[in-house]
Write a structure and sequence with these properties.
The protein contains 32 helices and 17 strands. It is an alpha+beta fold and 673 residues long. It folds into five domains: 104 residues, glyoxalase-related enzyme like fold (2-Layer Sandwich); 66 residues; 174 residues, no CATH class; 138 residues, DNA polymerase, domain 1 (Orthogonal Bundle), CATH 1.10.150; 110 residues, Beta Barrel (OB fold (Dihydrolipoamide Acetyltransferase, E2P)). Helix 12 packs across helix 13 and helix 13 crosses helix 21.
Length: 673
């Protein structure tokens, strides 16, 4: 496989110096560069992107209609959280409501809204562009002469969908911009820089430690396996060989999951459940415990039991995947005849056909699953054997939400440590120290410090050596045209960039530096001392500085138990195992964390709040129902982006969250810091 690296929209450069085939995988942060390359190769007038039309689906349509009908936003949001993405028809919605009393009552109260649903379902909602599909037309005519086109986002886009272009006989290619390949490049460069040997990711050995990571659910930034659902499924499946990973990718999809295949597979693999085979499919499905997991297995059923050749079997698979019933009707009779000739009862064939039809709607082919699984294994292998390089690259690409889960996993695995920005050891972005197995946060990642400011700081350090003291940094940064401003100094101090230089441990040291040294240097008086955060409030408290550090960098590990003691909350603190182990019997405990989000709602009983709290990068929910909401309303309204200490009951929610949650009781405390 040739890999084309295209970064930041620059012209493509070939890794091995050869011209790529059309099915080359492109690593790209800018798909426009990929499109430009294809246009340059085949001609601008011979290439177009494929247009798509997003349609109205149940979940989004309920929310849209509720907004038009002026239904309370929080109530509508709660209802649509009950509706699942897989619900596609009115029947799906009715089934969901029959098991969910709140949704059932919501439909009754807003019946006019739901009368409109059937007429609007699956109607076109918006035009868009397929993320990877492109059409390459024969050179005898320009693209606009071959099919109807439109211009969107500066691109020429087909009015026909991908399927219609396929049916018309045009060449459609999926040109994927895979970010993971960019990450691999960065990881390999770091491995070389650190004096290591880059592994051949196409020929990695089977490693039990890699599978232990999957079994623990340590799937942070693992290609195609990092979603919350697949993390939990990895923990249940406990993969031991690559075939288990391949199966996981194919099973954790709407079709197999709708039939419960993903759970049956786990029970057969780990709990000794005997496989149940469809009629004469033992040889075809022996490696998947009697389940149709891959499209190739459907083809084999049609070939071996239905009497079709491979081309015909592939036509059936394709029609099933697109649910083209008019195409499938004659094929059903043909395949059924083959089954009957081999002695299969008609009712047994009908059952097998329906199973294949339902499965094929969302199924994967084996080669697709294998490619995903091998890439996922390579990610996890690099994480196990090159953790510094892996996480340095992963965190550099991570969103704010991803960073939370990555830091939680790093903390659990305990292979490396993460430290806040350091004025001498940090770079513009993430940088690693191989000797100490430490990753230092980037100077450029501090809020309020722009990239040009970070570049100036790093360049000065490289040119004239490490900063010897805060005074040294200050006077080397003050000159005409300097990018380092007042907020830069304060952000660096508050984020802990000078802590290691001075071996700071307490907050008073930082305060003395900020207030005495920096403000003596600037010779500026504080215009309004009553509003200056560094001279009022809890500036002497360690938690206050940790909060500033968290706000500025997103990185701060806080001893919440110690904070609770300082706030005179002496009820028993929740131990880590109490929070991670399923609690069916309520435990009344003290806990603490940083509030990520507060969602307010209103029910027939009154107002309530769902608070997402992060405890050293592990997320959990705190629920405050109407009885306690009225008592704690003032604290609830000001707790977002703050540290809280509270007492409440911890209990497992088996219906919705599938996790332990805290609930406030009548004797609960809520302290907002």
């Amino acid at each position: 496989m040739k890999v084309l690296s295209i970064r930041n929209g620059t012209a493509p450069k070939l890794v091995d110096g050869t011209l790529p085939d059309i099915d080359t995988d492109f690593t790209s942060r800018d798909r426009t560069a990929v499109k430009n390359y294809i246009e340059d190769r085949f001609g601008h007038s011979q290439v177009c992107s494929v247009g798509t039309f997003t349609t109205m689906r149940v979940k989004g349509l309920v929310k849209d209609l509720a907004r038009i009908a002026s239904v309370d936003f929080n109530e509508a949001n709660l209802m649509t959280s009950i509706v699942e993405i897989g619900d596609k028809t009115m029947l799906d919605l009715i089934k969901r409501a029959s098991n969910e009393p709140r949704l059932k009552n919501f439909i009754k109260q807003n019946s006019d809204l739901f009368y409109a649903l059937p007429a609007l379902l699956n109607q076109p909602k918006a035009q868009s562009i397929h993320p990877c599909a492109m059409i390459i037309f024969p050179s005898v005519m320009d693209a606009v002469e071959w099919s109807p086109m439109r211009t969107q986002q500066g691109q020429v886009v087909s009015e026909w969908s991908g399927g219609e272009m396929d049916n018309a006989g045009f060449l459609k290619e999926d040109i994927l911009g895979i970010k993971q390949l960019d990450k691999f490049t960065d990881m390999f460069n770091l491995i070389k820089k650190n004096g290591g040997t880059v592994p051949d990711i196409f020929n990695l050995p089977e490693d039990p430690e890699v599978y232990r990571y999957f079994s623990n659910g340590w799937n942070g930034d693992v290609f195609q396996m990092k979603s919350a659902g697949l993390v939990e499924y990895s923990k249940a499946l406990k993969p031991q060989v690559i075939d288990d990973l391949i199966a996981a990718v194919a099973l954790y999809r709407p079709g197999p999951m709708q039939n419960g295949y993903h759970e049956i597979y786990v029970k057969c693999k780990n709990e000794g459940r005997a496989p149940t085979f469809l009629w004469h499919t033992e040889e075809i499905t022996k490696d998947t415990f009697g389940l149709l997991v891959y499209q190739e297995q459907v083809m084999e059923v049609c070939k071996q039991l239905g009497g079709l050749d491979m081309k015909e079997a592939d036509d059936v698979r394709r029609a099933m995947g697109k649910t083209k019933m008019e195409v499938l009707i004659p094929w059903k009779e043909r395949v059924g005849q083959g089954f009957e000739e081999r002695g299969c009862p008609r009712d047994e064939f009908e059952h097998i056909w329906n199973v294949m039809l339902e499965f094929s709607k969302y199924s994967y082919n084996l080669s697709h699953s294998a490619a995903y699984a091998k890439t996922a294994y390579a990610c996890q292998y690099l994480k196990v054997h090159y953790p510094i390089e892996y996480w340095t690259a992963a965190l550099d690409y991570a969103s704010e939400a991803d960073t939370l889960t990555y830091l939680a996993e790093i903390s659990s695995a305990k292979k490396i440590s993460i430290k806040p920005p350091d004025i001498n050891k940090s770079d513009i972005s993430m940088i690693s120290d191989q000797d100490t197995s430490t990753i230092f946060w980037g100077i450029g990642s501090i809020k309020g410090i722009g990239e040009d400011t970070a570049i100036q700081i790093i360049k000065e350090k490289r040119r004239n050596g490490p900063y010897k003291s805060f005074a040294d940094f200050y006077f080397r940064s003050i000159f005409k045209g300097s990018k380092v401003k007042k907020q830069t100094f304060e952000a660096l101090i508050a984020s802990g960039a000078f802590d290691e230089l001075y071996n700071f441990e307490g907050s008073e040291s930082r305060r003395m530096m900020l207030v005495r040294r920096y403000r003596v240097f600037t010779k500026k008086k504080i215009a309004n001392p009553q509003r200056d955060p560094y001279t009022i409030g809890e500036v002497n408290e360690n938690w206050w500085w940790k909060k500033q550090q968290k706000i500025l960098t997103g990185l701060a590990f806080i001893d919440y138990e110690k904070v609770a003691e300082e706030q005179n909350v002496h009820n028993q603190f929740c131990l880590p195992r109490e929070f991670t182990m399923r609690q069916d019997r309520g435990l009344f405990r003290t806990f603490g964390g940083y509030v990520v989000e507060v969602r307010l709602g209103k029910s027939s009983r009154g107002k309530y709040a769902r608070i997402t709290v992060e405890h050293n990068y592990k997320l959990f929910k705190l629920l405050i129902w109407s009885e306690e909401y009225n008592r704690l309303e003032e604290e609830i309204k000001r707790c977002e982006k703050s540290i809280i200490i509270f007492t409440g009951e911890i209990r497992y929610d088996s219906k919705y969250a599938k996790a332990n949650q805290f609930t406030m009781k009548d004797n609960s405390q809520l302290i907002v810091l």
